[in-house]
Amino acid sequence: LYMLCYNKHPFEDSAKLRILNANYTIPPGDAKYLDYHPLIRGCLQVNPDQRLTVSDLLERLAAISETRGINLREPLALEGKRIDSSTRPAPAMNNGPTNNGMDRTSSPSAHQIPPSPHKVPPPHPPPPSRPPPVHQPPPAVAPMSGGGGGVGGGGGSGLFSTIKGGAGGFFKGLKD
Fold first, then answer.
1. Which of 45, 101, 147, 156 suits a disulfide with 51, CB 3.0-4.6 Å?
2. What is the per-residue pLDDT across 87-115, written as a single tens digit (0 to 9) for each?
3. How many domains does the chain have?
4. In a domain, 79, yes or no
Protein backbone atom coordinates (compact mmCIF):
# COMPACT_ATOMS: atom_id res chain seq x y z
CA LEU A 1 0.00 0.00 0.00
CA TYR A 2 2.88 2.33 0.84
CA MET A 3 4.49 1.50 -2.49
CA LEU A 4 1.24 2.12 -4.37
CA CYS A 5 0.73 5.50 -2.73
CA TYR A 6 4.25 6.93 -2.85
CA ASN A 7 5.99 4.97 -5.62
CA LYS A 8 8.83 4.02 -3.29
CA HIS A 9 9.56 1.33 -0.76
CA PRO A 10 8.98 2.22 2.91
CA PHE A 11 12.45 0.85 3.71
CA GLU A 12 14.42 2.07 0.69
CA ASP A 13 17.84 1.14 2.06
CA SER A 14 16.58 -2.34 3.07
CA ALA A 15 18.33 -2.04 6.43
CA LYS A 16 17.32 -5.00 8.58
CA LEU A 17 17.02 -2.95 11.76
CA ARG A 18 14.73 -0.42 10.07
CA ILE A 19 12.52 -3.25 8.83
CA LEU A 20 12.50 -5.11 12.16
CA ASN A 21 11.70 -1.93 14.09
CA ALA A 22 9.22 -0.72 11.44
CA ASN A 23 11.18 2.52 11.19
CA TYR A 24 9.58 4.17 8.17
CA THR A 25 8.35 7.67 7.45
CA ILE A 26 5.23 8.73 5.64
CA PRO A 27 6.08 11.73 3.46
CA PRO A 28 5.26 14.91 5.41
CA GLY A 29 2.52 17.14 4.12
CA ASP A 30 0.79 14.35 2.21
CA ALA A 31 -2.91 15.14 2.00
CA LYS A 32 -3.74 13.03 -1.04
CA TYR A 33 -3.39 9.68 0.76
CA LEU A 34 -4.34 10.83 4.24
CA ASP A 35 -7.11 8.20 4.44
CA TYR A 36 -4.56 5.43 3.86
CA HIS A 37 -2.11 6.50 6.60
CA PRO A 38 -3.88 4.44 9.31
CA LEU A 39 -3.91 1.43 6.99
CA ILE A 40 -0.19 1.76 6.30
CA ARG A 41 0.55 2.14 10.00
CA GLY A 42 -1.67 -0.84 10.77
CA CYS A 43 0.11 -3.04 8.23
CA LEU A 44 3.63 -2.03 9.29
CA GLN A 45 3.28 -2.74 13.01
CA VAL A 46 6.30 -4.36 14.69
CA ASN A 47 4.18 -6.86 16.60
CA PRO A 48 2.42 -9.22 14.15
CA ASP A 49 -0.49 -9.63 16.58
CA GLN A 50 -1.19 -5.89 16.38
CA ARG A 51 -1.17 -5.77 12.55
CA LEU A 52 -4.40 -5.40 10.63
CA THR A 53 -5.94 -8.58 9.31
CA VAL A 54 -7.00 -8.92 5.70
CA SER A 55 -10.65 -8.64 6.65
CA ASP A 56 -9.90 -5.45 8.64
CA LEU A 57 -8.10 -4.00 5.63
CA LEU A 58 -10.97 -4.86 3.30
CA GLU A 59 -13.52 -3.34 5.66
CA ARG A 60 -11.54 -0.12 5.99
CA LEU A 61 -10.94 0.09 2.24
CA ALA A 62 -14.68 -0.38 1.66
CA ALA A 63 -15.38 2.43 4.13
CA ILE A 64 -12.87 4.70 2.35
CA SER A 65 -14.45 3.91 -1.02
CA GLU A 66 -17.90 4.77 0.36
CA THR A 67 -16.75 8.10 1.77
CA ARG A 68 -15.03 8.98 -1.51
CA GLY A 69 -18.00 7.85 -3.60
CA ILE A 70 -16.10 5.10 -5.45
CA ASN A 71 -18.10 2.17 -6.77
CA LEU A 72 -15.90 -0.91 -6.37
CA ARG A 73 -17.88 -2.85 -8.97
CA GLU A 74 -17.19 -0.41 -11.82
CA PRO A 75 -14.17 -0.88 -14.10
CA LEU A 76 -11.18 1.34 -13.46
CA ALA A 77 -10.58 4.33 -15.72
CA LEU A 78 -6.79 4.35 -16.03
CA GLU A 79 -5.00 6.89 -18.18
CA GLY A 80 -1.45 7.99 -18.86
CA LYS A 81 0.56 4.93 -19.85
CA ARG A 82 -0.69 4.90 -23.44
CA ILE A 83 0.99 8.26 -24.03
CA ASP A 84 4.42 6.79 -23.25
CA SER A 85 4.05 3.86 -25.64
CA SER A 86 2.76 6.07 -28.45
CA THR A 87 5.60 8.57 -28.07
CA ARG A 88 8.27 5.92 -28.66
CA PRO A 89 7.04 4.74 -32.10
CA ALA A 90 6.39 8.31 -33.27
CA PRO A 91 10.05 9.43 -33.00
CA ALA A 92 11.17 6.23 -34.76
CA MET A 93 8.79 7.02 -37.62
CA ASN A 94 9.92 10.65 -37.70
CA ASN A 95 13.56 9.60 -37.74
CA GLY A 96 12.93 7.27 -40.69
CA PRO A 97 11.95 10.00 -43.20
CA THR A 98 14.63 12.39 -41.95
CA ASN A 99 17.20 9.63 -42.13
CA ASN A 100 16.46 9.05 -45.78
CA GLY A 101 17.90 12.47 -46.47
CA MET A 102 20.91 11.87 -44.23
CA ASP A 103 22.47 8.43 -44.60
CA ARG A 104 24.93 9.10 -41.77
CA THR A 105 22.16 9.58 -39.22
CA SER A 106 20.31 6.56 -40.56
CA SER A 107 23.15 4.33 -39.39
CA PRO A 108 22.61 5.08 -35.67
CA SER A 109 18.85 4.69 -36.00
CA ALA A 110 19.38 1.49 -37.96
CA HIS A 111 21.57 0.24 -35.12
CA GLN A 112 18.76 1.02 -32.70
CA ILE A 113 16.19 -0.91 -34.72
CA PRO A 114 18.23 -4.12 -35.31
CA PRO A 115 18.61 -4.92 -31.59
CA SER A 116 14.92 -5.78 -31.50
CA PRO A 117 15.17 -8.12 -34.52
CA HIS A 118 18.31 -9.62 -33.00
CA LYS A 119 16.34 -10.29 -29.87
CA VAL A 120 13.63 -12.04 -31.87
CA PRO A 121 16.09 -14.45 -33.59
CA PRO A 122 17.27 -15.98 -30.27
CA PRO A 123 14.04 -18.01 -30.22
CA HIS A 124 15.00 -19.32 -33.69
CA PRO A 125 18.53 -20.47 -32.69
CA PRO A 126 17.15 -22.73 -29.92
CA PRO A 127 15.60 -25.14 -32.46
CA PRO A 128 19.06 -25.69 -34.04
CA SER A 129 20.46 -26.10 -30.53
CA ARG A 130 17.85 -28.77 -29.77
CA PRO A 131 19.37 -31.43 -32.06
CA PRO A 132 22.78 -31.22 -30.30
CA PRO A 133 21.13 -31.92 -26.92
CA VAL A 134 19.49 -34.94 -28.55
CA HIS A 135 23.02 -36.23 -29.26
CA GLN A 136 24.22 -35.19 -25.81
CA PRO A 137 21.62 -37.11 -23.75
CA PRO A 138 23.00 -40.54 -24.75
CA PRO A 139 26.29 -39.72 -22.93
CA ALA A 140 24.20 -38.26 -20.12
CA VAL A 141 22.05 -41.39 -20.10
CA ALA A 142 24.86 -43.45 -18.62
CA PRO A 143 25.14 -41.28 -15.48
CA MET A 144 21.40 -40.69 -15.39
CA SER A 145 20.49 -44.35 -15.99
CA GLY A 146 21.30 -45.13 -12.37
CA GLY A 147 18.52 -42.72 -11.41
CA GLY A 148 15.96 -44.47 -13.61
CA GLY A 149 13.46 -41.89 -14.88
CA GLY A 150 16.02 -39.09 -14.95
CA VAL A 151 16.62 -39.49 -18.68
CA GLY A 152 13.38 -37.75 -19.63
CA GLY A 153 13.99 -35.06 -17.04
CA GLY A 154 17.46 -34.34 -18.42
CA GLY A 155 16.23 -33.90 -21.99
CA GLY A 156 13.24 -31.89 -20.84
CA SER A 157 15.35 -29.52 -18.78
CA GLY A 158 17.44 -28.65 -21.84
CA LEU A 159 14.28 -27.97 -23.80
CA PHE A 160 12.82 -25.85 -21.01
CA SER A 161 16.04 -23.87 -20.60
CA THR A 162 16.10 -23.05 -24.32
CA ILE A 163 12.44 -22.08 -24.21
CA LYS A 164 13.14 -19.98 -21.12
CA GLY A 165 16.08 -18.24 -22.82
CA GLY A 166 14.07 -17.61 -25.97
CA ALA A 167 11.14 -16.25 -24.00
CA GLY A 168 13.46 -13.96 -22.05
CA GLY A 169 14.82 -12.54 -25.30
CA PHE A 170 11.31 -12.21 -26.66
CA PHE A 171 10.11 -10.26 -23.60
CA LYS A 172 13.20 -8.03 -23.70
CA GLY A 173 12.31 -7.26 -27.30
CA LEU A 174 8.77 -6.39 -26.29
CA LYS A 175 10.07 -4.16 -23.51
CA ASP A 176 12.39 -2.30 -25.88
1. 45
2. 555 444 444 444 444 444 444 444 444 44
3. 3
4. no
